[in-house]
Write the structure tokens for this entry.
Amino acid sequence: MSGKHKLTVPGRLEDAAIDTGIAADPDTYELTEAEFGKLRKVGRPRLSSPKVALTVRYDADIIAAFKSGGEGWQTRMNNALRDWLRTHRA
């Protein structure tokens, strides 16, 4: 956000007008505190062995070769390293 824009919080009257509009809209439903408390997070299920994020440097030609195969290049790179570990000592 640049310095030109300023966040304006609605005042009491504007907030009341917004609430009135919400209440009048038949397509809108406001949760009660009890319903809100029952909500649960959604998203991907937790993995039993999640990936580890790290920063690593590879030669440009290596990365280009994996990326040239399109989407999934990181998975292919991970699989290539896994295959290498099957026949070599780390």
User: Anything to note?
Assistant: The chain has a mean pLDDT of 91. The longest helix spans residues 73-87. The two ends are 46 Å apart (CA to CA). DSSP finds four helices and no strands in the chain.
